[in-house]
Amino acid sequence: MERLSPTTALPAHVQRPAYDRTALTPGIVHIGLGAFHRAHQAIYTDAALAAAFGPWGIVGVSLRSTDIVQEMHAQGGLYTVVTRDADGDSARVVGCVIDTLAATQERARLLALLADPAIRIVTMTVSEKAYGINPSTGGLDPAHPAVAADLVTPEAPTSVIGFLVEGLARRRAADLPPFTVLCCDNLPSNGRLVRRLVLDMAERRDASLAAWIGAKGSFPSSMVDRIVPAATEETRARATALLGAEDALALESEAFTQWVLEEDFVDGRPTWEAGGALFVADVEPYEKMKLRLLNGSHSLIAYLGQLRGLDYVRDVMAEPVHVARVRAHMEAAAASLDPLPGIDLAAYRAQLLARFANPAIAHRTTQIAMDGTQKLPQRIFAPAVEALARGGDADAFAYVTALWLAYVRRMGPVDDPRAAELATAASLAGSAPFFALPGLFPRELLSANGWRQRVEAHLATLDAAGR
Ligand code: CS2
Questions:
Q1: Do 66 and 145 lie in a common domain?
Q2: Is the minimum distance from the CB of 295 to ligand 1 under 6 angstroms?
Q3: Residue 136 belongs to what domain range?
Q4: How far is the CA of 225 from the centre of ligand 1 (A)?
């Protein structure tokens, strides 16, 4: 069968780029070419280009893998997103990723692009662990392997922050304005966080560079949301059936999508609102809502599922006793939030329950369970601290923590950048070795009256149940 390419004659029911792709020139570098970016930001960009065409083609960068780059080249940058919900499947071919490159093989080309005045925005989805955050300080961790390497040879970067800093240094040297740095990962105040990391690395090489970035740079925060499971053979088979052509890069996603951004761009942006993006003055309340209600519940579901042998989120949601747990968690998470004008939290929560239960979406609990040390601080520990400060018992958060510890103990070694430390902690008796891991648990939780005991009590119940 034919492979999807720009010359494929697509069936009428397949949505396709509604603009002249051959006239599109690069304006955005995106770092992290995973499924999420391709089913989220790229779709907003396609919608923006259809509504108001402009020089906003995306150059997609893969930091580590080279396979995705080869596949993208083979399909002329095109790929399909199949949206799956109760109304059935629909396919959309996305066209705005006009070039791709592998950072490990084409570092010089990437650095040249970052210094090209045509590139006005650099976006990223590289996952929580790639930023090199020191959990104790919230600043840059100079011991993170890629960060450590970049501090020695900043002109030959390997880390995402290293590329941003070297790119900005080259622009300053060329007397160009900086590019806007737009983080699209599930981190709290993600713009401010990345700004701090960039300034931290810049400061270590040249204080005047840090001052320039501090004065001229912009780092809007953004909240991103769409459930996009890792693609499988079935995903590709479904896309092939809809397209009548083979697509090695096909993805599937739920219909729901949300993007909330701060309006703070140095030098313009695509009209992403055409795809439904919301521009607001302060993204933080939206981020908190999403991290605590969606992602926090997701972590609960993932560890419950892992301990009970349930492979998919929808399997966990098929059991009323687990749904009751999810509801109780959402109740506690919602109580940790300030009211958000215009947002009906009860409706948001009801919608989340339906999204998690979507029978057409096969979202693996293993995928969400990974990297717990990078995810739980903002999803579980931060709301726990605030709940305690408001006089609550933060028991719901103690429960998820216990599930995670039970998961690490029983299913280890787990997929986590701190896997070795977790394995050591798991080999020792009790939960104390976990609580002693540097920078993981906020001090307020460790010193809170009775919270650790709650975790231990839940853990004892889980151990007694043997599952
Ligand atoms: C998930 C997220 O893998 C995870 O940790 O919680 O990827 C989640 O699916 C997205 O944030 C949804 O927007």
A1: yes
A2: yes
A3: 21-280
A4: 8
